[in-house]
Structure formats: C-alpha cells, structure tokens
C-alpha cells in the first residue's frame, strides 16, 4: 500500500506499524493529520483574520475524519470555518460564489484525487475570486496556486518501490514494518502572492522547501 488517507491500523489493514502481521505493508503518507498544519500556515499568511472556507471534494471513507480534524483545529484557536462541498464542477462554482458572498478570507482545500484532476480550474477560480488558498500538492502551486503543504511525495514513492522489490524477492509483508513519511514540503508561489497583494511573512518563507518566483 502507498499513501492511505486514514491510519492503516484504524482501517484494519495491518495489526500495527511495527508488525503488520498480515499480507499488507507499505508506506503511510499522513493524510488527515496534515489538515491542521495547512490551516495553521494559511492563518499565518493572511493579513486580516476572518472566515476560512474548507472545500471538501467527493466523499470517501476519510471525509468524516478530514472534517473532524479541521473543525477541531479551528475550534482550538477560535477560527471560524465555513465547510463547503465541491463534489462536481457545478458545486465548485456555487461554493466559490458562496465564498464571495460570505467574504471568505482564505481557502483550505480538502485532499482528494478529483481536485488534482481539475487543478487548473481550481487555481483559476481562486485567482478570479482573489482568495488566498493552500493546496494538497506542489502541482497546484506550479499551476499558479499560492501554496501547498504535504508529505514529500517522491520519498514515499521511493520507499514503496523498495518494498515492492523486497517482496518480489521473497520477503514476507508481515515482517516489513509500515513506513511513515518523515519529510514534508512547503511550496510557495511568490508571483501569485504578489497578484493577491500578499506579503508572505519571513518566518514562513524560511520554512519553505521551494519558492516559485
């Protein structure tokens, strides 16, 4: 396995990280656990406090946990959150119209493959409505999005490939501990920040792994 959205122990895929015990192992890239950090980073760059939207894509097994993580993190710091759904393009258009009506200050995208497929559209909508947004993967930032934060995807792929090779050579999955991602990457697009009239704090820039100018 590679990149499950929920803890594989909670899902029942493995007995524990150290001793999977069954016929499954692999790499667990943090999914729901990254949402609070994205919210924190978004709050750090906003010049004024205010309502932040959390846009949820097509629902899956991890959706309730994504919502719980974001709402709990927001409540802990007194951050008002507006949960909106973008399960198809029509819903996404309506969600952005609602954001404009409610004067949303920032946007947090929920993790979903669907959003990766329509990355250009999402980036264009955030630009049209002048809403600072934080995304799941660097591909959004490369397409003109403001910033992204997640586990480093390349590292997980390398580890998963290594495990696949070891299993093909006879290693038992039950004997291979589930590996957790330990490297994360923050990517920021300064050109987009300038267009939005944002000045990214120096403390945030220092933590960036890549800055697009």
Question: What is the topology?
Answer:
Blueprint: H1 8-11, E1 27-28, H2 35-45, E2 52-56, H3 63-76, E3 81-85, H4 89-101, E4 106-109, H5 113-117, H6 119-128, E5 133-135, H7 138-142, E6 147-151, H8 153-168, E7 179-180, E8 184-189, H9 190-195, H10 202-205, E9 210-212
Parallel strand pairs: 1-7, 2-3, 2-4, 4-5, 5-6, 8-9
Antiparallel strand pairs: 6-8
Our Rg estimate from Cα atoms comes to 18 Å
Largest beta sheet, briefly? 7 strands, mixed
Topology order in helix (H) and strand (E) letters: HEHEHEHEHHEHEHEEHHE
Tell me the name of the CATH class of the largest domain.
Answer: Alpha Beta
Counted by DSSP, the helix tally is: 10
Mean pLDDT: 91
DSSP strand tally? 9
- List the uncertain runs: none
**Share of helix among residues?**
40-55%
Describe the overall structure:
This protein has a seven-stranded mixed β-sheet with strand order 3-2-4-5-6-8-9, sandwiched between helices. The protein has a two-stranded parallel sheet with strand order 1-7. It starts with 7 loop residues before the first helix and ends with a strand. By secondary structure, the chain is of the alpha/beta class. It contains ten helices and nine strands. The protein has two domains: 49 residues, no CATH class; 108 residues, Rossmann fold (3-Layer(aba) Sandwich).
